[in-house]
Structure to design on (386 residues):
C-alpha cells in the first residue's frame, strides 16, 4: 500500500496515494474523463506504439535539458499545465504548484478557475507562468481577467479553445462532483471517511474562485458541475476573429490550448500566436478524439518553426517526453501528472513528482546517447508495425 510520499516512485504511485487520500468524488474528478474514456486512455497508450532507438559510445557526462518556450527559458522541457479548482485537491493548491515549479525553474499554469488570488501568485517565487483564459459570455469578466493577469506579471496567456461546450463527464455525474462540493448522503459519507481532507477543507481559507466571484456565482457560491459551467458560462460564439482580438488586447506571448489539427495550427500562426498546446483536454471533452502524441508530428510538420508546439496530455514518464520531442514538440506539459502528487502531498508531492520526471528525462537521454534535447530527432523513433 502507498501510505506516504516515500513509497511513491512514479506517477502511478502518486495516483494510488491520491485515491487513498481524497473523497471519492474529488479523486474521480481528477482521474475521470468523458464518456467511455477511450481518448483519456489513448493519451498515454499512444506512446507505447513508438520505440526509441538509442546510440551508444557518446559523451553524456554533461546533460542540458533546458529549452525556451514562448520566450520563457525553462530548466526542463516539461511544465505544469494550468488546471482548475486546485484547492479542492489539497489546501495548498496553486501556491504549492508554483513553489514546486520554481524549484525546477519550469513554467506553471493558473486557470481562470483558480482557487488562489493572482495577487498571491504574484508574491510567490518568480518563475515563468502561464494564465489559462476561458472566454466567458460576460465581457466585463473577460476584461477583468486580462487586467488581473497583466498586473500579476503572467508571461503567457493561453486561450482554451476546446471547451465550447462541456464534455459528457459521466464519472462526475455518478459521484455527484460539483464545485463547490455539494453535501448529499453519498458525498457526506465519503467526506467523513476521509477526515484529513475534510478537516483541511473546513479549517483553511474558505474555498472560492477569486476571479469569478464578483461576476459569476456558479462554481464558488452556487454548486455546479464543470460540464454545466462550460456549457452555460462560456461564449459559444468564440471564433478566430475573437481570438485575434484577445491576442491584441493581451499584447504579449499568446498561446492556443486545445489545438488538434494542422489546419487550426496554421490558423494559430496566422493570428500571431507564439505557441500552441496540442491537447484534447485530458480526454475530458470529445471522447473518440485522437491523442496529442498521435497528432504531434503532423502538426509540427505543418507549422515548422513558425510557433512553439507543446504536447499537452498523457505524459507519465520521461521517455514520453523524449518521444514527443523527437516527434517535433518543443516541450511537454501535463495536468494529472502533478495533480495526483498535489493531492498526495501538497508542495512536497509536486516537487517529488517533478523531480522524478526530471531524473527520468536525464537518465533516458544518457541511455539514448544525447547530451542536449536539441539532439533529439525523428531518426531516433520507430513506429511498431503489428
Amino acid at each position: 500500500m502507498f501510505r506516504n510520499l516515500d513509497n511513491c516512485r512514479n506517477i502511478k504511485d502518486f495516483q494510488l496515494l491520491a485515491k487513498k487520500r481524497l473523497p471519492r468524488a474529488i479523486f474521480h474528478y481528477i482521474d475521470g474523463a468523458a464518456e467511455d474514456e477511450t481518448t483519456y486512455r489513448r493519451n498515454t497508450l499512444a506512446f507505447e506504439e513508438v520505440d526509441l532507438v538509442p546510440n551508444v559510445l557518446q559523451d553524456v557526462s554533461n546533460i542540458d535539458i533546458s529549452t525556451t518556450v514562448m520566450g520563457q527559458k525553462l530548466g526542463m522541457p516539461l511544465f505544469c499545465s494550468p488546471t482548475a479548482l486546485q484547492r479542492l485537491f489539497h489546501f495548498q493548491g496553486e501556491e504549492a504548484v508554483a513553489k514546486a515549479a520554481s524549484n525546477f525553474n519550469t513554467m506553471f499554469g493558473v486557470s481562470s478557475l483558480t482557487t488562489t488570488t493572482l495577487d498571491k501568485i504574484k508574491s510567490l517565487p518568480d518563475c515563468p507562468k502561464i494564465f489559462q483564459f476561458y472566454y466567458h459570455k460576460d465581457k466585463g469578466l473577460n476584461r477583468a481577467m486580462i487586467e488581473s493577469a497583466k498586473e500579476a506579471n503572467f508571461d503567457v496567456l493561453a486561450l482554451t479553445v476546446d471547451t465550447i461546450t462541456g464534455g459528457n463527464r459521466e464519472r462526475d455525474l455518478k459521484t455527484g462532483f460539483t464545485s463547490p462540493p455539494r453535501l448529499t448522503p453519498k458525498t457526506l459519507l465519503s467526506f467523513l471517511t476521509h477526515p484529513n481532507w475534510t478537516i483541511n477543507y473546513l479549517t483553511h481559507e474558505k474555498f472560492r474562485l477569486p476571479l469569478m466571484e464578483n461576476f459569476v456565482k456558479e462554481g464558488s457560491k452556487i454548486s455546479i458541475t464543470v460540464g454545466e459551467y462550460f456549457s452555460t458560462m462560456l461564449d459559444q460564439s468564440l471564433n478566430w476573429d475573437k481570438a485575434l482580438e484577445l491576442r491584441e488586447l493581451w499584447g504579449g506571448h499568446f498561446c492556443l490550448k486545445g489545438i488538434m489539427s494542422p489546419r487550426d495550427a496554421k490558423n494559430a500562426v496566422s493570428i500571431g500566436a507564439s505557441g500552441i498546446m496540442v491537447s484534447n483536454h485530458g480526454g475530458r471533452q470529445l471522447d473518440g478524439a485522437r491523442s496529442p502524441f498521435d497528432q504531434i508530428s503532423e502538426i509540427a510538420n505543418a507549422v515548422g518553426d513558425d510557433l512553439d508546439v507543446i504536447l499537452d496530455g498523457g505524459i507519465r514518464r520521461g521517455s514520453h517526453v523524449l518521444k514527443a520531442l523527437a516527434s517535433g514538440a518543443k516541450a511537454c506539459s501535463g495536468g494529472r501528472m502533478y495533480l495526483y502528487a498535489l493531492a498526495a502531498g501538497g508542495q512536497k508531492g509536486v516537487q517529488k513528482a517533478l523531480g522524478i520526471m526530471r531524473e527520468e528525462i536525464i537518465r533516458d537521454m544518457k541511455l539514448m546517447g544525447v547530451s542536449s534535447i536539441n539532439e533529439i530527432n525523428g531518426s531516433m523513433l520507430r513506429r511498431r508495425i503489428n
Observations:
- The mean pLDDT is 96.
- The radius of gyration is 20 Å.
- DSSP finds 15 helices and twelve strands in the chain.
